[in-house]
Design goal:
The complex is a heterodimer of chains A (240) and B (401).
Chain A (H helix, E strand, L loop, with lengths): L17 E10 L6 E11 L4 E5 L6 H8 L7 E6 L2 E2 L5 H11 E4 L11 H11 L4 H14 L15 H13 L5 E5 L7 H18 L2 E5 L3 H4 L4 E6 L2 E4 L3
Chain B lengths: L1 H14 L1 H39 L3 E6 L16 H10 L3 E16 L2 E10 L2 H6 L3 E4 L4 H6 L3 E4 L1 H7 L9 E4 L2 E9 L14 E5 H9 L6 E6 L5 H15 L10 E5 H44 L1 H9 L4 H37 L8 H27 L3 H6 L2
Parallel strand pairs in B: 3-8, 5-7
Antiparallel strand pairs in B: 1-9, 1-10, 2-3, 2-6, 2-9, 4-7, 5-8, 6-7
Helix pairs in contact in B: 1-11, 2-9, 2-11, 2-12, 3-8, 9-11, 9-12, 11-12
The chains are: A alpha/beta (240), B alpha+beta (401).
Chain lengths: 240, 401
Amino acid sequence: MAELPRPEGGPNAAFPIVEFRRVEKIYGEGESEVRALDGVDMRIDPGEFVSIMGSSGSGKSTAMNMIGCLDVPTSGAYLFRGVNVCNLDQDQRALLRRHFIGFVFQGFNLLARTTALENVELPLIYRRVPAEERRRRALKALDLVGLSSRAGHTSAKLSGGQQQRVAIARALVTEPSLLLADEPTGNLDTARKAEIMELMVQLNREHGITVVMVTHEPDMAEYGTRTIVFRDGKIISGNH
Amino acid sequence: MLWATLIMSLREVRKNALRSFLTMLGIMIGVGAVIAMVTIGEGATQKVRSDVGALGENMLVVSPGAARRGPERTAGNPFQKDDVEAIEREVTGIKALSPTAQSNTTVVVGNQNWPTSVIGVDEGYFEVRGYKIEMGRSFSEVEAASGTPVCIIGKTVRDNLFPGTMPMGQRIRVKQVSCLVVGLLASKGQAAMGGDQDDVVLMPLRAFQRRIAGNNNISSVYLQVEQAELTSSVQAQVEDLMRERRRIQPGAVDDFNVRNMQEIADTMSSVTASMTGLLGGIAAVSLLVGGIGIMNIMLVSVTERTREVGTRLAIGALASEVLLQFLVEAVVLALLGGILGILFGLSLSYAATQSLSLPFVISPGTVAGAFAFSAAVGVIFGYLPARKAARLNPIEALRHE
């Protein structure tokens, strides 16, 4: 089995969580070549709540996948807490995600016909947490998002907002350094949007979790402490 | 991890209960067929063995005439007393022996008559054939030596000639000879080939030869070997001895034969065994079909659950863990099918053996084999879909609709 790459320093080290150094990502070749990221420099420090905006095709999704260690740059370097992700293989990147990154998706991506509690336990299974502790921690995470009373409900019996909160609990349960949210409010009505955003702000402020959120809605971006705007594979505003 | 994966897989199987059951059905029928065939075959084999054993344990029968089967069976000269004495003297490993002479004839009591086998025997016959006297007595030495017409009758003869009365002390007429009934044989029941072993009248060989046959011929010699392992050795000794005594040239066909009951049992068992093998082969094909069914449904499942796989990969599952999960799911499906198949096959063969009055023998080896085989089917046919899942790109899988 692959070994977990050890990020530099402790949890409160001075290293940025995310550091892009002239990152390029090129899809295709020759005529059909697409530069999704065109020499991006970017830094996100611990404790920030960064909103990433941009129209479709601007490179924000590519940047998001890269921050989440799902993708690697074509050239340049991406350092996650001081670890150069470019040098890691697929399994090592999976282990980085397992231990340090929580994901929240637009479509919630809860497992069908599975209870809220079981969904939240899922990342702990991959971290080999024993069943009893898994349950305890999952309940605690559900409590944090205000859904402990719905632990036994399957996703079909939960509203969209509740499903997204379960998904946030699933991302939180491993106590990640970074919470990555991809359009987390995209499938929700206005009232639920506010609830979810307030929850994320609370997690950021009270629990010190660094949040990076991709959104195309300026209202949502405003919940963050900083907004980075992408256009044509480059950052046009919001960099340090 | 494996345990958690197993729980997850069972949950997955339960989520799609009907689909899972239909998928298992192929394996279930395949395994059930194998188990049923083998169990019924095993029962039949045991039945044959115990039937042949009932004819007489470790028994050899020496008869005149070539062993060749078919219509042109050449008759040989009957044996004589000195042949039997020579066997007794020169062959080692014999526990008991009896010369016999036999005639199929009708016996009469009053106005009742009954066609049966009348056999002239020595004392050793009871031991060789495993006959026991239920009532009355055996022949005395004097009776045996002097050829007194006394007889011991089997249960079938008694039921037909002496219904409801005590046969002992009464007389039956065999051909022109009046014969005193002194004993009744304990019932042995049907023989393997359907012969009724209780339909018999035994009398001293001497009496039979002198009063019924009118000659000193011996039609067969029954031998019981000390141990089953000595059977072939005794058979060879008897054959050599008889060849010598009957002056058969090397290479010439024997005009006598030694039948080995064990051989008959082996032949019949091997017939059942090859039938079992053939049916087992057919069942293996249905297991193959079942395996393809599992592969098919797993491929569908992987496609359906592409987003789930993407989510799992995003939250930190390794490709190998995704592979393991889908592989375990396939194995769980196959094993559940196998277990259902084992139960199904056993109940089917129980019903069949009961109705055919065969013994019901569970062969643990076959059950374990079926279990292992279904697990193997799960691994083999689950691997391809599992690898497909493990090789998904998380970014594309998450985008999958």
